[in-house]
Amino acid sequence: MAGESHPEDEFMGHPTTDNAASTFGMFSNSHHFTITAGNLVNITNEKTLALTVPSDYRRIPVGDIDLLREIMLDSSCITHCQRERPRVRRVYTAKIEGRKSNVTVAIYQGEGAQEEWWEDMERYSRLRHPNIVQLCHFASSLKIQAVVFNDDLILLQHFLELHHHSPILTVYIHGFCNTDFKEVQKYFHSTFQQDLYDFDCTIWIRRSTGRLYADLIPYTKFSSCDVDNVSHPQGFIFMDPLGQEAMAIGCLTLDQYHQICYHYISSWRFISISTDVMVNPGAVIACSSSDQLQGWVEIASLPDVNVACGDWRGADGEVLEDGWTRFNSSDVLNRTLSANMWYYNGRCWLSQANHVFTCFGITSNFDDYFFVKDIYFSIQIFATTQDEPSGYLFLCPIKNFQTGPSSFRWPDFPAFWSLDPAGHENLSAEEATRLGFPSLRLETKLHGDSWPASVYAGLRQFHQGKGFDPNSQDVARHLGDPLYQTSAEVDPPSAHIDPDDGQTEPSNLYDDIPSMLFLI
């Protein structure tokens, strides 16, 4: 009836400024009416705010929301556009009057809060999927707006921290989250005919189910990859840790486990090396993460694998019939031209890493060993203070870098300047300098991945759980991976005897093979 109030259905627009009387001028003399779901346009102070009230969600009083604790979002993950303005949205674990279980609530306060609230409300009202956050209530008062989500949520990063003690569970969580996120992407594309990317989302875990729960607001560091679907049995989250690990080993294949370790749990490494050193993509090298000046040494390599090679990049050049690439001198001043070779099958290393470590008696400092994915050969061209002459820079064919089936280094004659567009008359370094051509600086960089000790411990446990000897290359043979060979120049580290107690300890790898170190 006209005189009755229906709090579940009615909605009143709220001001975006402190002047409530001005904002509500359109209703200032109105009494005894109800606004049901629909579109409202309030024109105030030459501003237009379109309010779309979803009729399928229950409005609750703000006072029914009991905030228990704020869920802290890592500021380093928040997108650049979010940093440019004050944050108006904060997320909390909360209780709702009349409901036993906890829920998750987003509170909006501050300048622009109402607009952001409406945008989020409109977004949530269009989505319904078990792996996407589900709106169940909303609330609005004079200066506070809120949305309430089903379930008590935990950020994926925090969920992983709870299971950091188990390398196998860490891998498994990444695996089933990747599978769940692919389902979210399929749903989003079928519903909106648009692609959804991992960086568009904040990734949560539902405490009641242990499944991924995606919020379509950019925040998290989560990234998806092309890994086969990982099964996630019901009730997994309620098992004891040993039961969880046993089930995870049963759910994951060898290839899945290696792929997830490779994509999710690796750390990037870049080092510069001497330009006269030969390197192998796919090799494993030892290089101190705390002091790269200590040097590096290759401990294992793949003798014959297919290495991919790229062309010269960094400026527009023309590849000639003889394979050399020609650049106009004016196009390369103060630029870096580079070519790279790569081998990305890091899973091959993970299938036999513990075998290689066993061969050398390596039991610590695992972060110092990394898999070489890319080799970058770069030429830096520095402009001189004088006017450079018109001419051409010629760079050698990429094949000239190859010294063996899968090994590369700088050739003896990688580049030259010439006044001749055909390159038949190349200038010596002295002639080029005298004519005013820029100097060329050669550089070699290695890019690769390293893994912490916990990953190698998890690999050992997982391979044993699958019935393999982790100290052998049996897993690699089973998967058909190429087999690593330990470097012939590297001898297993000799034992060091402590004269005080007679105990034998493995010595530092670097101490036993100084002749192999190439200073950076």
Topology (SSEs and partners):
Layout: H1 20-23, E1 39-44, E2 47-52, E3 58-59, E4 65-70, H2 80-83, E5 89-96, E6 103-108, H3 113-125, E7 135-140, E8 145-149, E9 153-155, H4 156-162, H5 167-192, E10 202-206, E11 212-215, H6 241-251, H7 254-264, E12 267-273, E13 284-287, E14 296-301, E15 308-309, E16 318-319, E17 325-328, H8 329-332, E18 335-342, H9 346-350, H10 353-360, E19 369-382, E20 392-395, E21 402-404, E22 407-408, E23 415-418, H11 429-435, E24 439-450, H12 453-465, H13 474-479, E25 485-486, E26 495-497, E27 504-506, H14 509-512
Helix pairs in contact: 5-7, 7-12
What features would you describe in this structure?
This is Protein kinase domain-containing protein. Residues 485-508 are annotated as: Disordered. With 520 residues, the protein is of the alpha+beta class. Helix content is 24%, strand content 26%. The protein contains 14 helices and 27 strands. Strands 12, 13, 14, 15, 18, 19, 24 and 25 form an 8-stranded antiparallel β-sheet that branches. A 6-stranded mixed β-sheet has the order 3-7-8-6-5-4, with helices on one face. A 4-stranded antiparallel β-sheet has the order 16-17-20-23. The protein is flat and about 85 Å long. The relative contact order is 0.10.
